[in-house]
Amino acid sequence: MLEMSMLAQLVAFADCGTLSAAAEKLHTSQPAVTRTMKKLEEELGLSLFARSKNHLALNEVGELAVRHARRILQETADMTERLRAYERSLRTISIAFCSPLPQIVLTPLLNNIFDGMTLSADMKDDADFFAKLFDRTYQLAVTHTPPEDATVFHAKKCGHEDLFLSLPTTSPLAFHPRLQLDHLKGETLLLLNRVGFWMKAVHEKTPQTRYLMQEERTTLTELAANSPYPIFQSGYFIARGEEIEGRICVPLADSECHTDYWLVCLKEDLPKYRKLFDKVTEKTIA
Predict the structure, then answer these.
(1) pLDDT at 116
(2) If you placed Cys at 122, which of 12, 47, 96, 255 could pair as Cys (CB 3.0 to 4.6 Å)?
């Protein structure tokens, strides 16, 4: 009976070119690999190697066997990962957020609807979110663009966010009714390390701006309250009166500073998450 370890050692030999190199890669001994190759030939009833004095090489049958072995090993790895992901999904909801605000707003709602389930959350740029939904790394995602394929994904707009610049009232920039990111040229700003897709959007438009990176939102707010440095502020918190005393928030006009948010899952998984989709509206994040 063929074993996965036999196929793995055959592929290692093909990659490394010698039994000794394959053994080193596999953290085993050369005699052990030699025995495995002989056993593999016996199981198949075929010769896989051209043998000469002090030399071993794959023959044509062996080359074909390697191609099949690679495919079998990859398919086995894919099956294992999919089964593990499915098993996790039975007790865990993995959700990806493209920026901090959706995570702040939606986490309490998720915990309430899916009480008893473990919530596993990522917050980062959403460039690969649709691919990771498709391969079931994530069950849910909040993106700043809707999916293109409506036959595969179900999406619902769940809010909007506008960025402002929070400034001391004495800052020359505070006298503008609206600002653009270009106005930040030569400025020094405080910025959170993890802001998802906003990081790329902001940095691409402000290459000559210096950023003092902070890990925690509370620390950033405290520093802003006691320093002249501008910070980005979400319209969500401004609407709720969460402004820093002694500062003014000026709207940013750039299109990159305004976004919609979309709650997304695989269409086939919609029945599982119907309660959540029924609950969110275009003003859930607003």
Answers:
(1) 83
(2) 96
